[in-house]
């Protein structure tokens, strides 16, 4: 029941609907109970008198109880199913809010396809638990409790027969059901694996086409599909057993009732009408009992699904209530012996492979297990108004440094400060408002290009401001060639744009935000030298930002910076102006010479 605690809390908000639904459930079952009694009286009266007129009152009662049953059934289903849909809506909103609130470490621990599966397939399983699962079991129990005194009063031997059959069915269900939940959990986890594979292939369709991987991907998907079928068949065999077995048991019960009941009629212990009443009431019990097997599988599936959803809902979120807001526009960044290692829980390791993966890890001061340092002993001060450049070898920690400065990841306390405040004590939302980052991997939504540029801007989009930002990013001329210009809808992830156009769209987005700190994380790598020079020239003329931080491998991008930091293996190995670093003759000078030689060769 631990997995269902969230559902109970949400269901409490709809107590009135649920209580009303259960009230109509009792009225429905009351109608089911009284209608056979009216049939019994009508049949016995007509057999005794042979006059049709005598049964008209009973026929009217039968009609009344039938209408009571129908109306109550409709009201019951509407109220309970409506409550379940509202709980589903609220649960979906909770999941979405939580996904937006968790840190980036969460998304490094979970694959995209698996998260989509939890938000769709698992949520649907929970909805079925809330609807049929909540409705059918109380319905069956209330009907049995209402019918029990009447059935006993009609014939104790027949009632004992029915109770024995019900006992066998309940015993069977209690024996089989515990084995279903782990099967459902394994199945739902595998649905996440399949969804993730489909998402990866669709997202990387260009690569699939370029390397003619269609047949290979079909074989891989078939392997996944066969495993899915194998796991599903284990459940199908159990679920498929319930209905035939229950129908057989109830058919056998009908024969026993006719045999014993017939003898009681012959002996005068039962009237024909009473035997009919007993049979009809047992028939009314048949479907609820038959559905128990199906409902119990829904419940087990729903509990397993809710457990997977709770993995999202229970993920810890940083308490921001006591965090300080960053109100100043003049920002000074200070790193004091800054070191960072990605926690072991954030590492994405191979799954379902036979390889042995050996990874060394250590225990950090805060108790988190971590792998080797990505940054180590980094010290710097970046003052407001400066243009800072960061370069270095591949994998030297440049992007990690930017992720720490922008609050995407958190260092240990006492290592990184903004205006003298520890970054761990600053509200991430207020920090994000002060910093615009153009990341290496540009993500564009399937919306118009104007909407993509204005992303993150409060209030209505100002098209003139969007055009101005596009002009400064060197994108305006490209947009004017589009059929719909700024209203042009981009494909998923901006697939209709070139790499350079994507980067310039992201640059325009960051310029429109007008944050005091602007960070380019290798954001000019896909544009040509002429466009790069145009963008940098425009940036120098802008006054919407105060501090510019550029990560790049291109010396032409870095040379005008006030300070250039050179990273190697997570450490700052050089710092200074372009001329100072060239004179130093170390790593930066070698990179510059190498690029100069490459340029000469290309020329």
Describe this structure in words.
By secondary structure, the chain is of the alpha/beta class. The chain has 2 domains: 312 residues, ABC transporter transmembrane region fold, CATH 1.20.1560.10; 255 residues, Rossmann fold (3-Layer(aba) Sandwich), CATH 3.40.50.300. A hairpin with a 2-residue loop joins strand 6 and strand 7. The longest helix is centred in the middle third of the chain and has 53 residues. The protein is elongated and about 120 Å long. The termini are far apart. About 4% of the residues have low confidence.
Provide a short characterization of the protein structure.
The protein has 20 helices and 12 strands.
Task: Name its key features.
single chain, 603 residues, alpha/beta, ABC transporter transmembrane region fold, Rossmann fold, 2 domains, six-stranded mixed beta sheet, four-stranded antiparallel beta sheet, 20 helices, cell membrane
């Amino acid at each position: 029941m631990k997995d269902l605690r969230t559902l109970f809390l949400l269901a409490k908000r709809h107590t009135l609907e649920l209580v009303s639904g259960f009230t109509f459930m009792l009225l429905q079952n009351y109608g089911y109970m009284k209608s056979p009694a009216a049939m019994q009286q009508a049949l016995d009266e007509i057999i005794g008198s042979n006059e049709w007129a005598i049964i008209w009152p009973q026929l009217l009662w039968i009609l009344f109880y039938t209408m009571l049953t129908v109306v109550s059934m409709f009201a019951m289903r509407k109220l309970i199913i409506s409550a379940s849909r509202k709980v589903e809506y609220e649960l979906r909103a909770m999941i979405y809010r939580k996904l937006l609130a968790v840190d980036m470490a969460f998304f490094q621990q979970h694959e995209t396809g698996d998260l989509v599966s939890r938000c769709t397939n698992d949520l649907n399983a929970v909805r079925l638990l809330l609807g049929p699962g909540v409705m059918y079991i109380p319905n069956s129990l209330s009907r049995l409790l209402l019918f029990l005194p009447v059935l006993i009063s009609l014939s104790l031997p027949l009632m004992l027969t029915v109770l024995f059959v019900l006992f066998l069915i309940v015993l069977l269900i209690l024996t089989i059901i515990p084995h279903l939940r782990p099967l459902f959990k394994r199945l739902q986890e595998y649905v996440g694996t399949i969804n993730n594979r489909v998402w990866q292939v669709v997202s990387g369709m260009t690569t699939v086409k370029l390397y003619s991987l269609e047949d290979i991907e079909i074989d891989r998907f078939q392997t996944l599909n066969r495993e899915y079928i194998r796991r599903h068949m284990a459940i199908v065999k159990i679920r498929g057993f319930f209905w035939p077995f229950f129908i057989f048991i109830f058919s056998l019960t009908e024969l026993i009732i006719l045999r014993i009941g017939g003898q009681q009629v012959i002996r005068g212990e039962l009237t024909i009408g009473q035997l009919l009443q007993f049979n009809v009431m047992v028939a009314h019990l048949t479907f609820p009992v038959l559905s128990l097997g199906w409902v119990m599988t829904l419940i087990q599936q729903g509990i397993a699904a809710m457990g997977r959803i709770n993995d999202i809902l229970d993920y810890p979120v940083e308490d921001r209530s006591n965090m300080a807001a960053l109100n100043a526009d003049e920002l000074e960044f200070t790193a004091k012996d800054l070191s960072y290692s990605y926690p072991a829980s954030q590492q994405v390791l191979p799954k379902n492979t036979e390889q042995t993966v050996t990874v060394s890890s250590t225990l950090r001061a805060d108790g988190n297990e971590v792998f080797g340092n990505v940054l180590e002993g980094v010290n710097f001060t970046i003052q407001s108004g400066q243009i800072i450049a960061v370069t270095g070898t591949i994998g030297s920690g440049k992007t990690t440094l930017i992720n720490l400065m922008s609050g995407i990841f958190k260092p240990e306390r006492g290592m990184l400060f903004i205006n003298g405040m520890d970054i761990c004590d600053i509200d991430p939302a207020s920090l994000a408002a002060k910093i615009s980052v153009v990341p290496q991997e540009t993500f564009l939504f399937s919306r118009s290009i104007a909407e993509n540029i204005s992303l993150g801007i409060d209030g209505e989009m100002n098209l003139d401001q969007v055009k101005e930002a596009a002009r400064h990013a060197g994108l305006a001329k490209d947009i004017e060639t589009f059929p719909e210009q700024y209203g042009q809808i981009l494909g998923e992830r901006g697939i209709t744009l070139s790499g350079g156009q994507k980067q310039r769209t992201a640059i325009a987005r960051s310029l429109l935000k007008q944050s005091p700190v602007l960070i380019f994380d290798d954001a000019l790598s896909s544009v040509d030298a002429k466009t790069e020079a145009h963008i940098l020239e425009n940036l120098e003329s802008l006054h919407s930002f105060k501090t510019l931080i550029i990560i790049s491998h291109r010396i032409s991008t870095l040379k005008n910076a006030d300070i250039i930091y050179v990273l190697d293996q997570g450490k700052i190995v050089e710092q200074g102006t372009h001329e100072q670093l060239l004179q130093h003759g170390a790593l930066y000078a070698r990179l510059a010479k190498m690029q100069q030689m490459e340029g000469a060769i290309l020329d």
